[in-house]
Amino acid sequence: MSVQRKQTDVAIIGAGFAGLGTGIELKNAGIRDFVIFEGEEGVGGSWRTNTYPGCACDVPSHLYSYSFEPNPNWPEAFSRQENIRQYIEHCADKYGMKPFIRFSTRVTDATFDETKGRWIITTSDGQITEARVLVPATGALSHPKYPDIKGISKFKGKAVHAARWDASIDLRGKKVAVIGSGGKSRSGRGRGQLQPPAGAAVGGDQPGAGRRRGRPDADEEDRDPSGLRRPPAGRQAAPAARPLSRLPRRADR
Length: 253
Ligand SMILES: Cc1cc2nc3c(=O)[nH]c(=O)nc-3n(C[C@H](O)[C@H](O)[C@H](O)COP(=O)(O)OP(=O)(O)OC[C@H]3O[C@@H](n4cnc5c(N)ncnc54)[C@H](O)[C@@H]3O)c2cc1C
Fold this sequence. Notes:
alpha/beta; FAD/NAD(P)-binding domain; 2 domains; six-stranded mixed β-sheet; two-stranded parallel sheet; 5 helices; flat; binds flavin-adenine dinucleotide
């Protein structure tokens, strides 16, 4: 039995910051013939799947937001995962993106047919979609990468990946080994890193690894002393005051 092919002008893979932003800009430009394929059940991408304790951004929230949707209500200068997830959810609702998204639908194959000049996209629900333009906005940090360590399958304790946190795990009184020395692993020393509760003994850390630019590390410095509810003009004023080499990265750039 042949599968009936759907047709669309633009196919976007992923409903994180990048995919949603693309969809919103297409709609703003009057283009409505597009679809967003999202493997998860909701929007947010890495800010939906990363829920470990202490998960937060390390770029000031006034900058780490869409240029067309400034948010004067960020609760902290470097907001936490749940606030960022809610912001993305708000944007998806406000700009009417959800009807364009096929949730729980993974793209399993995408091949460009040169004779037709179209992408042939296969999804996990068995459907095939043809598109003129394909926008892969699949990110990287929502996909857990498990370390290939000899004997790891025999480990008797609980093991959890930062991108698939198990909220039922109680770390109090436990010895915790962190594998990896990137940004998330500098346990408990700054915003955005895994912050186990008091009473957990954490090892495996490398001081200085994954050190961030553009954000203070101390919690008390994380609060914007001039007040967070400033109008969005603050988002332009902040980077201009810094040397170019220290400019924070922007999600919407
Ligand atoms: C804890 C943490 C802190 C971070 N802090 C910062 C920061 O301070 N500043 C900064 O600039 N960046 C930061 N990042 C990086 C962050 O991932 C990016 O800024 C941004 O959110 C990436 O958005 P994205 O849309 O490109 O990708 P993602 O958010 O990863 O979204 C990709 C989406 O594509 C979907 N997808 C992937 N493959 C498929 C497929 N085959 N079929 C269907 N759907 C698919 C995924 O399910 C996901 O929803 C941080 C990330 C984490 C995890």
